[in-house]
């Protein structure tokens, strides 16, 4: 298959492109062709093709079987200033709009469009219900920033309905990997015995290991699974359980506590949404369709981190 990947130079994009190129023709879409070439040097027969956004309209969407949009600025800023929030929103919504408009011109309607999203669309964790959100959960309007971002992101993709083009919404949890993602930031304090319980520590920590994420995307393409799909490991732990087990495995102490009020004071909205509340979701679609996770539980995650 011919597969176009937008955001191919990012953490997920690099891993996905290198995985899929063994069996498919991969086209990496990005702003800087030199950067793309440096990341994907043409050293073997499975070379990755390069396309810039300026060149996109010289290609026909109908010549591709699968289009995967992973483009989006990181949310991991120390503070979410007004400018930062605008950049985070536009980097997702505008690139998606561009690709959707481009795809709408395709005569061939056999396209499969996969777009990144996030489990934050379900809103912040509600400790009153403690229920895991599945793909059948009705999406309600939420005031938190990350939920609004995911909602706006997905609304752009849904415009493909009018073009009769199939689409899949990849709702990511926190992605962990040895060569990128959030793992190094999470691991650093634990290595020095400085891991801390944040607030009451009971906020859910929804995660997925990059290897499972890449295998799951390949699985979705192969089976042509459509609609929203939660990209999250079956077992969601709490922030307290995660750092407790991780610290124990590293033979490091775990006794520090940071009150929620301190996090809210210094990190404001970013601290509230990313560190204090968290999200809860279950990978019902993947499991129902027979996908087998390699990393299901906290014990397997900790073992993976230590290897």
In short:
By secondary structure, the chain is α/β, with parallel strands linked by helices. The chain is built from ten helices and 14 strands.
Q: What structural keywords apply?
A:
307 residues, Rossmann fold, seven-stranded parallel sheet
Description:
- The mean pLDDT is 89.
- This protein has 307 residues and is of the alpha/beta class.
- It has 10 helices and 14 strands.
- The longest helix has 22 residues, at 82-103.
- It has one domain: NAD(P)-binding Rossmann-like Domain (Rossmann fold).
- The two termini are 35 Å apart.
- The strands form 4 sheets. It has a 7-stranded parallel sheet with strand order 3-2-1-4-5-6-12, sandwiched between helices.
- It is 38% helix and 19% strand.
- Helix 1 (11-20) packs across helix 6 (210-223), helix 3 packs parallel to helix 4 (145-157) and helix 7 (239-249) packs across helix 10 (298-306).
- Strand 5, helix 4 (145-157) and strand 6 form a beta-alpha-beta unit.
Q: What spatial form do the alpha-carbon principal axes imply?
A: globular
Q: Helices and strands, in N-to-C order? A: EHEHEEHEHEEEHEEEHEEHEHHH
User: In percent, how much strand structure appears in the residues?
Assistant: 15-25%
What share of residues is helical? 25-40%
| CATH-derived topology | Rossmann fold
Radius of gyration, taken over Cα atoms and rounded to an integer in Å: 20 Å
Report mean pLDDT, rounded to a whole number. Answer: 89
The assigned CATH architecture is: 3-Layer(aba) Sandwich
Oligomer classification: single chain
How many beta strands in the DSSP annotation? Answer: 14
Count of individual domains: 1
Number of helical stretches of at least 4 residues: 10
Class of secondary structure makeup: alpha/beta
Strand order of the largest sheet: 3-2-1-4-5-6-12
Straight-line distance between termini: 35 Å
Q: Which regions contain 5 or more consecutive residues with pLDDT less than 50? A: none
Q: What summary fits the major beta sheet? A: 7 strands, parallel
The CATH class designation is Alpha Beta
């Amino acid at each position: 298959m011919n597969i176009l990947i937008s955001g191919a130079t990012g953490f997920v994009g690099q891993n996905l492109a290198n995985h899929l190129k063994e069996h498919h023709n991969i086209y990496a879409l990005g702003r800087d062709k030199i950067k793309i070439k440096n990341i994907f040097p043409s050293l073997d027969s499975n070379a990755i093709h390069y396309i810039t956004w300026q060149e996109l309209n010289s290609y026909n969407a109908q010549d591709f079987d699968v289009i995967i949009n992973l483009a989006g600025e990181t949310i991991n800023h120390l503070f979410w200033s007004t400018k930062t929030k605008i950049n985070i929103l536009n980097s997702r919504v505008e690139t998606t709009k561009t690709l959707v408009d481009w795809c709408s011109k395709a005569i061939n309607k056999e396209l499969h469009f996969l777009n990144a999203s996030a489990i934050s669309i379900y809103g912040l964790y509600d400790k009153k219900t403690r229920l895991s959100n599945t793909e059948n959960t009705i999406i309600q309007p939420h005031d938190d920033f990350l939920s609004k971002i995911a909602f706006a992101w997905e609304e752009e993709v849904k415009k493909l309905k009018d073009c009769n083009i199939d689409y899949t919404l990849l709702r990511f949890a926190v992605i962990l990997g040895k060569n990128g993602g959030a793992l190094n930031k999470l691991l650093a304090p634990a290595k020095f015995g400085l891991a801390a319980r944040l607030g009451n520590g009971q906020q859910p920590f929804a995660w997925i290991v990059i290897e499972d994420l890449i295998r799951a995307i390949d699985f979705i393409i192969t089976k042509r699974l459509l609609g929203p799909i939660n990209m999250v490991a079956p077992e969601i732990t709490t922030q307290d359980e995660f750092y407790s087990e991780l610290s124990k495995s590293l033979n490091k102490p775990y006794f520090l506590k940071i009150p929620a009020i301190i996090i809210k004071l210094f990190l404001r909205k970013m601290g509230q949404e990313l560190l204090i509340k968290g999200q809860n979701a279950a990978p019902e679609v993947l499991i129902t369709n027979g996908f087998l996770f390699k990393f299901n539980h906290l014990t397997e995650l900790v073992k993976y981190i230590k290897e």
